[in-house]
């Protein structure tokens, strides 16, 4: 079936809220390129929204999934477990910056599910209920994670009331007028006005906000947040669903800060295209809830675990962390050049290959309409490009870290062409 025929099916049968606004349908994909149902080639700077740090269909990951497929496809880990589940938990405990001396992990399917479980674990371990999150945060689309998400449109608008005992502080964002001191002060105020610290189970933060706009919390800020949590016995949950698994030049963005979380959530590029997420944490905290209180029918599917074990090997074998840092440098150089050349481009930033810039109007304010126009122009020239951000004016690049040099150049030239045409 071609794009038009598939589009007709979509219009007729896919729920409006779940249907993609674009009219192409992916047919096959390889590393940072894909071909649609009409045979048109695309360069993929979205990477399945940060899921494909190792590219579409990395051969070693495909082989690992195939091999697992020939052994066991599903049992439900709640019924009978299997080697890849426990082997992956072991690896995650060895690699994740969470407090020891002993660490444990659990596996689920999506980022939102990991956050849901992190909250359950934190509440069980502390006997407290309050959860503090940040403006612009994105933690998922289930009801609890929607309550934790700090942006109404398009996520929360139609779906209230939200679960309670979720409180919000401003994310440190000096580019948009919130200094780190102001953010920390607001947290202390929150503890006076809305929830007592001794009723607060956890503060949940993305070290680099994903959907919120690729804003980066500095090492100093994260250290201060860690200290604030310790002062009050509050657990620090670090959400690395988007920033984790090599995107920022480290396995986890938190490693740039030198602090450790109590609980860390990971998903997306953890299994590079297979659905899988994890909560990794201090063993005492992780063991705080009763038997059979965590998990689900599909949690930690064997195929996904096999993929994740292969991902960890590939990251090491192919120097993916160094390549992520180098890709980040390249993107930063190019964005800086655009910032100089185009008045409407500003606030370029990156942590490794988690890189973004903003589009501004002639008064220097966020320009979401221009941002949409740049993404649309890129599509006209065969580049899949994503925007994001609290203000909807951030262009983010989540191209696979394994992208070929020539494909990267081609994609960046398409963005440059769009800026030339529109800025
Ligand atoms: C930081 C962060 N947390 C949680 C989620 C939710 O993940 P999922 O869409 O897999 O439920 C996302 C998704 O973009 C995310 O970026």
UniProtKB/TrEMBL annotation:
Biological process, per Gene Ontology: gamma-aminobutyric acid metabolic process
Source organism superkingdom: Bacteria
SUPFAM superfamilies from the UniProt entry: PLP-dependent transferases
Cofactor: pyridoxal 5'-phosphate
Family in the record: Belongs to the class-III pyridoxal-phosphate-dependent aminotransferase family.
PANTHER family xref list: AMINOTRANSFERASE CLASS III, LEUCINE_METHIONINE RACEMASE
NCBIfam families: GABAtrnsam (TIGR00700)
Protein name, entry field: 4-aminobutyrate aminotransferase
């Amino acid at each position: 079936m071609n794009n038009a025929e598939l589009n007709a099916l979509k219009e007729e049968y896919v729920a409006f809220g779940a249907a993609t606004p674009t009219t192409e349908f992916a047919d096959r994909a390889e590393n940072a390129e894909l071909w649609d149902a009409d045979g048109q080639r695309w360069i993929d700077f979205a990477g399945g929204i940060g899921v494909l740090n190792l590219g579409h269909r990395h051969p070693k990951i495909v082989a690992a999934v195939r091999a697992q497929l020939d052994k066991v496809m599903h049992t439900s880990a709640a019924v009978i477990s299997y080697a890849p589940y426990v082997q992956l938990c072991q690896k995650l405990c060895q690699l994740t910056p969470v407090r020891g001396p002993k660490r444990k992990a659990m596996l689920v399917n999506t980022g939102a599910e990991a956050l849901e479980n992190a909250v359950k674990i934190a509440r069980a371990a502390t006997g407290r209920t309050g959860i503090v999150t940040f403006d612009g945060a994105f933690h998922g689309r289930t009801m609890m994670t929607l309550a934790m998400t700090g942006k109404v449109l398009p996520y929360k608008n139609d779906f209230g009331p939200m679960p309670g005992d979720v409180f919000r502080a401003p994310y440190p964002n000096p580019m948009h007028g919130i200094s780190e001191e102001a953010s920390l002060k607001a947290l202390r105020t929150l503890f006076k006005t809305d929830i007592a610290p001794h009723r607060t189970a956890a503060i949940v933060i993305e070290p680099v906000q994903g959907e919120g706009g690729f804003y980066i919390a500095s090492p100093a800020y994260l250290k201060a947040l860690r200290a604030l949590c310790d002062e009050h016995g509050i657990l620090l949950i670090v959400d690395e669903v988007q920033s984790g698994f090599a995107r920022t030049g480290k396995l986890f963005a938190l490693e740039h800060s030198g602090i450790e979380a109590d609980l860390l959530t990971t998903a997306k590029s953890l299994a590079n295209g297979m659905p899988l997420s994890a909560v990794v944490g201090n063993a005492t905290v992780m063991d705080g809830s009763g038997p059979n209180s965590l998990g689900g029918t599909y949690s930690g599917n064997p195929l996904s675990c096999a993929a994740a074990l292969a991902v960890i090997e590939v990251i090491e074998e192919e120097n993916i962390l160094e390549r992520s840092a180098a890709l980040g440098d390249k993107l930063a150089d190019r964005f800086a050049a655009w910032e100089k050349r185009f008045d409407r481009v500003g606030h370029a930033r990156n942590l490794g290959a988690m890189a973004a810039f903003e589009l501004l109007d002639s008064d220097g304010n966020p320009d979401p309409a221009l941002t949409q126009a740049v993404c649309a122009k890129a599509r006209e020239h065969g580049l899949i490009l994503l925007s994001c951000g609290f203000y909807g004016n951030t262009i983010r690049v989540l191209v696979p870290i394994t992208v070929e040099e020539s494909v990267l150049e081609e994609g960046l030239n398409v963005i440059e062409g769009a800026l030339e045409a529109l800025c």
